[in-house]
Design brief:
mainly beta, four-stranded antiparallel sheet, globular
Length: 781
């Protein structure tokens, strides 16, 4: 099986999910939204995946974007992938048909590839892409193709009337005919996303599930079209609305605006249908049965616990994919916000049992991570809050190993902190929408009274003075200097930035905070606060300040001061509290700044993104080991470091371990120089800083070629292993953003490449040797 995850890349299993291997290159964007196999006999080794998510993408960070960059093809069953050149797109901006791809499918007769994108339904004839059913603006689209090659396509219900609805074509070319639109048939009223599936055993039948715009009640309608009679039948009356009361986002049928929406028909029975929204439901005979029944997601319509049974594993809500096994029509796989699950008896009359197949499936999307503040000889505790997968922690003395994490809290994971202010080592964790909980010495929900919160609840615990906890209530700050005993009604309400009587309060939501690595001193301690409209503020003596009126605006000059100019990261030098670094997450704006006098009334900032100018920067850290300082920048495409960003470019780190994952959070512990790396899609990593993470002698490896000189100024020479007898070498040079800068072939004895025109910075040279690809890093001075 092959599974695609939005910020974790493509994974492959050959043992039914007992183990998975990520086959997306570590040097590519880990965005994968749709995957398909060529169904034709003799071509089933060919697979494709598309990238870029249109709606609900948690990797976007409230407007920072996380576009895809095309469609990829594998000719060896998903083991290796190559981008289709004509789909290459610039991932930093929405400028291509292939930035966001909802769905792809292969024509079973011609082998042509079809793509449902925000710009329409595109067909690739092997040479060029043809938009067979264009939209006039970014829109939901979907498609399904029958075994005879008939194509059905949908354009979202909020598109202009001339476009929206369901269309069909005998072969997917320029003869699409609309078969449904608002009011035709009567009562059809799609207001958003429409998804389709045809019945394999009766291909004249096609189901359409669509968002209907209802906010209090069943949020989607279900219809079926019969090509033979050209008649639609409304089956919305069968949609789930369970007895015993409603629960928002759970029951009646809920779809989160279309983020969760899928329909699938049993291959041998056109009346057996499974649908997915926040929950999964089935109906054994849509012609005779009254209503769909719940088979997964939330446990019931009375709570938000995960679906569970006596004999099965927990299932997870937010259903995105439902696939029947091609070998057994009773076996069904689901793809959800909780990964991949399988049931072996979809026809069971009782509660459906599921098997969890997330075995080394690296797709955990951490928002925030934290590390134990002090080094201990028998443990190394880490904790992380993950998108829709709660909070996980590991590294306990009782853990099976130092790499295993277990769930410690549910909901959407959010900010996390570990305190040493009590012997029980209190955890601070929570869930979406504002909740913060302390687990000991007395477990309690300590959410500040009268607070409001952004979706990903955020707070900051001073890692040196862990009695001090600062909670972001959107644009309002709450403080306690008694973190282990604070209750909901004992926080200090610090009001908002600039909340001066007679003046409008600052509306910036607080996104990031940090403090210096010093024992608390009212004369020298401060709190840095970053907002979502570009502002950076310093609050001096934060444990004693009465409110935020006294906070000083120290925003770097030239910063974009409108949303979403999000201050995504703040960090202070471990031994010099005058040095600080700040990052901004969006594209096309100044993104990294450093100051060496942050405590001054008007600090001097230097813009230092240098060769990371095109990146979205999500996190920063400053480390020091043996007197050597190293600055880190976590981006939407990997982790980078520089010993001095004011004078030296950034170099990519841990390229073979972390790769081009989105680095959502960085936490440093000066005592032992440990750096915890939280990613949004690849889990978390930990390393000890002993210089750069990348090997400085990589060109001396024992692989088939080496390069010299490195660094170079004009010419790069390849030296092959003498056992290889290769007349021509194909190569390409790629920059740190993944863009191909140069390519060509080296013939005969020619093994040198002129790189004089390259800008200064870090590059990769990739060559093909004996049918395999190998890469080396080099620096152009």
């Amino acid at each position: 099986m092959i599974a695609a995850s939005i910020s974790g890349g493509v994974h492959r299993t050959t043992d039914g999910g007992v183990s998975w291997t990520r086959t997306t290159s570590d040097q590519e964007v880990f965005s994968a939204t749709t995957v398909v196999q060529d169904p034709r006999p003799g071509f089933q080794n060919i697979w494709y995946y598309g990238s870029g998510e249109f709606f609900g993408n948690s990797a976007s960070l409230s407007g920072a974007f996380y576009y895809g960059n095309g469609i990829w093809q594998s000719d060896d069953g998903g083991q290796n992938w190559t981008k289709i050149p004509s789909t290459d797109s610039e991932f930093t901006q929405f400028d291509s048909d292939f930035d966001i791809i909802h769905e792809i499918d292969v024509h079973p007769v011609t082998g042509e590839l079809f793509a449902a994108t925000t710009t329409g339904i595109l067909r690739f004839n092997g040479t060029e892409w043809i938009n067979e059913l264009p939209t006039s603006g970014p829109e939901w689209t979907s498609l399904t193709i029958t075994s005879t090659g008939r194509v059905y396509a949908a354009i979202g219900g909020d598109a202009p009337n001339a476009e929206q609805g369901v269309w069909t074509s005998e072969d997917g070319q320029l003869d699409f005919v609309r078969i449904a639109t608002d009011g035709d048939p009567l009562e059809w009223g799609a207001t958003g996303r429409i998804v389709l599936d045809h019945a394999p055993s009766s291909e004249n039948l096609v189901y359409a599930l669509f968002v209907n715009g209802i906010s209090e009640g069943i949020e989607a309608d279900l219809w079926r079209y019969d090509l033979n009679t050209d008649v639609w039948t409304d089956f919305t009356s069968t949609m789930p609305d369970e007895a015993g009361g409603d629960l928002r986002g759970n029951d009646p049928f809920a779809v989160q605006g279309g983020y969760d929406l899928v329909v699938s028909v049993k291959p041998d029975d056109p009346n057996f249908v499974i649908i997915g929204g926040t929950n999964a439901y089935k109906i054994g005979d849509i012609e005779t049965e009254a209503q769909f029944v719940r088979i997964g997601g939330y446990n019931s319509n009375s709570n938000y616990a995960l679906w569970d049974t006596t004999d099965g594993d927990e299932h997870h809500p937010d259903i995105h994919s439902i696939v029947f096994s091609p070998f057994n029509n009773l076996v069904v796989y689901t793809g959800t916000d909780g990964g991949v699950h399988r049931t072996d008896a979809i026809d069971s009359a009782g509660r459906i049992d599921w098997v969890n197949l997330n075995n080394n499936f690296r797709s955990y999307q951490y928002y925030h991570v934290a590390i134990e503040p002090n080094v201990q000889p028998d443990r190394d505790i880490v904790i992380g809050g993950a998108q829709d997968n709660g909070t996980t922690a590991g590294g306990f003395a009782t853990s099976p190993d130092m790499e295993s994490l277990s769930s410690v809290f549910g909901g959407d994971g959010v900010a996390v902190s570990i305190s040493d202010d009590d012997d029980c080592l209190p955890f601070f964790l929570g869930s979406q929408g504002g909740q913060i909980v302390r687990d000991c010495p007395v477990g309690a929900d300590i959410t500040p009274d009268e607070s409001a919160s952004q979706f990903v609840t955020y707070w900051f615990l001073d890692p040196v003075n862990t009695n001090a906890l600062y909670y972001a209530g959107r644009n309002r700050l709450f403080r306690t200097t008694s973190s282990t005993t604070v209750a909901s009604d004992t926080w200090d309400n610090m009001s908002t930035i600039g909340n001066i009587p007679g003046e409008s309060p600052n509306t910036e939501f607080i996104q990031s905070m940090t403090t210096p690595w010093i024992n608390y001193d009212p004369a020298t301690s401060y709190l840095l606060i970053g907002g979502d409209e570009g502002g950076i503020y310093r609050l001096d003596d934060p444990q004693n300040a009465n409110n935020l009126v006294s906070a000083t605006d120290i925003t770097p000059p030239g910063v974009t001061r409108t949303f979403p100019s999000i201050v995504s990261g703040l960090a202070v030098h471990p031994t010099n509290p005058d040095i600080a670094i700040a990052s901004y997450s969006n594209y096309g704006i100044p993104s990294i700044f450093i100051t060496t006098n942050v405590r001054d009334a008007e600090p001097t900032w230097v813009q230092v993104e240098r060769n990371l100018e095109i990146n979205s920067v999500r996190s920063v850290a400053i480390t020091e080991n043996n007197g050597e300082t190293l600055y880190f920048a976590g981006t939407a495409r990997g982790l980078y470091s520089s010993p001095d960003p004011m004078t030296q470019d950034w170099s990519i780190e841990a390229v073979d371990e972390v790769g081009f994952a989105l680095i959502s959070d960085l936490k440093y512990r000066p005592e032992d120089s440990k750096l915890l790396i939280g990613t949004h899609g690849s889990g978390m990593f930990e390393t000890k800083i002993e210089g750069t993470l990348s090997s400085p002698d990589f060109e001396q490896s024992t692989t088939a070629f080496v390069i010299s000189p490195n660094p170079t100024t004009e010419v790069l020479t390849l030296n092959l292993d003498p056992v290889l007898s290769i007349n021509a070498i194909n190569y390409q040079i790629v920059d740190v953003s993944g863009k191909v800068i140069d390519s060509g072939a080296l013939e005969g004895s020619q093994r040198s490449i002129n790189v004089a025109k390259l800008a200064q910075g870090l590059y990769f040279i990739e060559v093909e040797l004996d049918g395999r690809k190998e890469a080396k890093r080099f620096i152009k001075k």
